[in-house]
Write a sequence for this structure.
């Protein structure tokens, strides 16, 4: 009888750019595990039927946009942090058809920032650009870092699953500056110790060109493809610190592998795999 090998996958849309396969496969091979890892294009209206057909040999799912929020009510259980943030990026199966959702993005953001800035660094003022699922994870990460003042800069924060709702569940009250008030948004960005961008490249490129960034500022641009963004270029040119979204992706993937396999992967083996990409 032929043995079916276990496999995992990243789901979302679009998915062709994802570096998760390189990270996961490097970890599994180093651990001596014969687990395959795939990219699967799944749109919002397809995720329910996809979960209903979950095969027994599937070890777990990495979940990317636009599914991080819509997948939550379809799961049997959701971890407390993922529930508070309102975003799931990891799904693990358990016996009896149970599916559990977790959020490893928060860990990834915190670990990436600590790797570059030091384990004891805590920003006095931080700004998150955007208000969606990743911005919500960034909020929780900033709380863990002991950030003094947090502001959201976004076009709007209305609608389901936004960062303001996550802030309420997290018990914090960040400021909100709409992009419709560019002078105030510019002031907030120019005085921030840490800027976390969660929006696609080109969305705010023209706006960034009007901002006077400083050498004491740090930018984490979570969107790593294409790289570098105008924001990253401007802060690099002035001598500021840059944290790539690839570093956040690396650290969150370490936690995913732990959840999928109950084994601790080699961080440096995974780092070497993503550096090549």
């Amino acid at each position: 009888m032929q043995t079916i090998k276990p496999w995992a996958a990243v789901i979302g849309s679009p998915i062709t750019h994802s570096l998760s396969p390189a990270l996961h496969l490097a970890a599994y091979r180093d651990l001596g595990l014969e687990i395959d890892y795939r990219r699967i294009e799944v749109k919002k209206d397809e995720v329910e039927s996809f979960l209903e057909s979950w095969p027994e040999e599937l070890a777990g799912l990495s979940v990317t946009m636009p599914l991080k929020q819509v997948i939550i009510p379809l799961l049997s259980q959701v971890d407390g942090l993922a529930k508070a943030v309102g975003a799931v990026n990891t799904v693990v199966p358990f016996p009896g058809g149970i599916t559990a959702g977790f959020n490893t993005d928060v860990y990834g953001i915190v670990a990436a920032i600590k790797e570059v800035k030091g384990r004891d660094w805590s920003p006095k003022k931080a700004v998150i650009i955007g208000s969606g699922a990743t911005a919500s994870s960034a909020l929780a990460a900033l709380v863990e870092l002991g950030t003094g003042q947090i502001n959201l800069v976004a076009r709007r924060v209305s609608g389901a699953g936004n960062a303001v709702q996550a802030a309420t569940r997290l018990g914090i009250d960040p400021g909100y500056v709409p992009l419709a008030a560019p002078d105030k948004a510019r002031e907030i960005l120019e005085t921030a110790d840490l800027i976390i961008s969660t929006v696609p490249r080109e969305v705010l490129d023209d706006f960034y060109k009007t901002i006077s960034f400083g050498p004491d500022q740090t930018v984490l641009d979570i969107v790593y493809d294409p790289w570098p963004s105008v924001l990253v270029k401007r802060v690099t040119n002035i001598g500021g610190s840059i944290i790539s979204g690839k570093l956040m992706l690396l650290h969150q993937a370490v936690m995913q592998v732990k959840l999928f396999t109950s084994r601790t992967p080699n961080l440096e083996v995974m780092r070497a795999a993503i550096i090549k990409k």
